[in-house]
Each structure stands twice: as C-alpha cells, then as structure tokens.
Design brief:
single chain, 8-stranded antiparallel sheet, alpha+beta, elongated
Length: 384
C-alpha cells in the first residue's frame, strides 16, 4: 500500500502563488538555466511544493540555484516546467495570484485571472539529484566584502577553456583576511580584505569558477543579506545568500604561483587621476592596432604621454601632468587591460609603478595605508 501512496504524491501538485513573488525567484534563476542544452531536462525548472512554500531549482550540472517563494499548497508534489517559456509567460501575466497544477503526462496547467495555459513538462525523475548543503562546515563571509572582491577580479579571469585552472578565481580564506586572485596569464588582479574575522583555522584555498562568480555577484546585488554561508565538499562549492543556495562544481588543479609574479622592485612611480587617465587612454586607443590594442606610455619629468599609431587609421597622443621626477621611460600595454582596471576603481588617484620596459607594471588605487582593502593589478608589458 505505501508504494501506491508514494507514486500518487509524486504525480500530483496543486498550488497558488503570487505573481510578483514567483517572478522575483524565476528572475534570480535565469543565469543558471541552460539555453542551448543537449540534455532537455536542464532547460526545465524543478518545482517542489510542500508545507507553505514552492521550492524552485535550476541547474546546468556545473552550477545550480535553489530558491523558494511562499505558496498556498493545496496538494503537495513536484513537477518540471520549461524554464524560459514559463519565465517569459509569467512576466506577461497581470498582477495577482497564479495557480499551478500538475496534469497527466507531465503537463502543467497555469491559470491567472482569465488566462489559462498548459505547458508540456517532463518527468520529475529525470531531473538530476543535487548535493546537500553541508551546514556543519559552513563559514560566514561578509556579503559586502565578497561583492567587492568579485567586482575587482572577475574581469581578469581567462576565457580560454584550454587554460582550465585560470577559468576561475582563487579565494584564500584566513582567520583575519580574505584574498581573491584572478589572472589570464597577461594580467593579474589581487585584492585582500584585512578586516574580516573568519572561523577558519590556517588557510583555506578554493578555485571559484567564473560563471559561479558572475551568478554570485548578481545574487549579492539583489539581496540585502549581510552574510553569505560558504561551505564545500569534495567536489562542490556552496554559497547560501538569504533563502537562495548557489552550488558550483569546484575547479580542480593547481592555480599558478601568483606570488612569484608580484613585482618587488618597481622603483619608478607616478600618480595620476583615474578619470583623466581612463579618458586619455580611450581617446588614444581609437588609433591602436585592433588586434593588439597596444598603446605606448612615456613617463618623463612632470608628464605622462600616452600614444598610439596605426598605418591604416592614423596616430594619437595625449598628455597628463604629473609630479613624476624620475628617469624617462617608455613602456607598452594593452589598452583594454588598463581600461578594465580603471573602470572598477572608478575615481580617485591611481599609482602606476614601473621598473623598466621589459618588466610588468603595477597599478594600485592611491589609498591610505590603513585602508581595509589592498588592491593591486599587474600587467605584462607589450613590445611596441
């Protein structure tokens, strides 16, 4: 007898939810749902109704997001619904309640006001099982700090799939600090927050995939949660933000020894205003080679000159006043790499530190020594 009951529970579901609350959670999951997948079930949401809530899960196998919204549950049960189609449809419904009911053959009925739609779902049994959050090993991370660390490093992550261990950022958790490092082999972003107090012993290092970082950033920006519960098991990273749980498959392998490339003896430094430098580089970069984006920087007494030339389009030079008093030096950089850094710094002064034309340049926001963040950006020079 119990087996017949179990089958019955798995094949029923009838609930009512508010459009605004459902849409909020469907919106949060859109970045995780696979658009073009060879496994059809991954294009579906898993809906599970019990108690007084509807749990919603989306996954692409590398990344998953579990969230929920309040619901009036008439019959407990579960179903799967085409994710994109449901999201697009719910957006177009009027405000008010939506009733969702599982019919025969995995069809799902959606009714709201005078609108009545039936969608073709798939068997609940096909939806992949997801790992459970290991609450006993969770560490609380400050949400605002994590948001800042991601913003300051994500743009430096490699997009080349062949460089597997560079397709994410290294997060290092220590009792008094959190470090995040990202590199694509041509530039490296390194930021440390020194005000966090974490319940870790020693040092915990994890590689966070780029897609997980982007999704985490979106979730943090749409939540007012003060902390993020972070945990991991052998293969998975877990980030719980309020009522939402993001899981990501860990990147395995060895992240490069980044400490070996941090410049030690860049003895020439020039301070320039972030906005002015960014504007000058953008103007000059219009005339840089389209493939290399190479620009030339010349620092000399009281001045920084930025220039580029291209036999097809012309040449351009901009100059900034500085307090530089060292030996003249010329060095080439990819303008795109500099602009991406300046964009996330936003305002204030930046210090540009050099050694010679063959060594990596380092940029840092010109901040007080007791600042809670230590941010540095290392860029390899280009032959020009």
């Amino acid at each position: 007898m119990p087996s017949a009951v179990a089958t019955e529970v798995g094949t029923t579901m009838e609930i009512t939810v508010s459009k605004s609350e459902l849409l909020k959670e469907l919106t949060a999951t859109q970045g995780v749902v696979e658009r073009k997948t060879t496994i059809p079930i991954l294009s579906n949401f898993l809906f599970e109704a019990s108690g007084d809530k509807l749990a919603i899960t989306a996954t692409d196998l590398d990344l998953s997001l579990r969230t929920s919204c309040p619901a009036k549950v008439k019959k407990e049960g579960s179903c799967t619904v085409p994710a994109r189609k449901l999201y697009d449809y719910v957006k177009l419904l009027g405000d008010g309640d939506i009733s969702i009911k599982l019919l025969e053959n995995h069809w799902v009925q959606i009714r709201s006001g005078r609108s009545n739609t039936k969608m073709v779902g798939m068997a609940r049994a096909n939806f992949p099982a997801l790992p459970q959050f290991p609450a006993e090993s969770a560490i609380q991370l400050p949400a605002q700090v994590l948001r800042n660390l991601i913003a300051k490093t994500i743009f430096s992550i490699s997009n080349e799939e062949s460089r597997y261990t560079l397709n994410g950022a290294l997060m290092v958790l220590k009792p008094e600090s959190i470090v995040m490092v990202a590199t694509d082999g041509h530039r490296l972003a390194h930021i440390e927050n020194t005000t966090s107090k974490l319940a870790v012993s020693g040092e915990l290092k994890v590689l966070v995939p780029k897609k997980a970082m982007a999704e985490l950033s979106t979730l943090l920006n749409s939540s007012d949660a003060q902390t993020v519960d972070f945990a991991r098991d052998e293969s998975t990273l877990f980030f719980r933000i309020g009522g939402r749980l993001l899981t990501a498959r860990q990147l395995t392998g060895q992240f490069p020894n980044y400490e070996a490339v941090l410049p030690r003896d860049n003895n020439k430094a020039v301070a320039v205003h972030c906005d002015e430098l960014s504007a000058a580089i953008q103007r000059v970069a219009q005339f840089a080679d389209e493939r290399s984006n190479a620009i030339r920087m010349r620092v000399e007494k009281g001045e920084m000159k930025i220039s580029s030339s291209n036999t097809e389009t012309g040449e351009s030079e901009d100059s900034l006043e500085t307090a530089y008093d060292g030996d003249p030096m010329v060095i080439g950089f990819n303008s795109q790499y500099l602009l991406e850094f300046l964009k996330v710094v936003g305002s204030g002064d930046v210090r540009f530190e050099f050694k010679d034309a063959q060594s990596a340049g380092q940029l840092r926001p010109d901040e007080p020594a007791d600042s809670e963040y230590k941010y540095r950006y290392i860029v390899m020079p280009m032959r020009i």
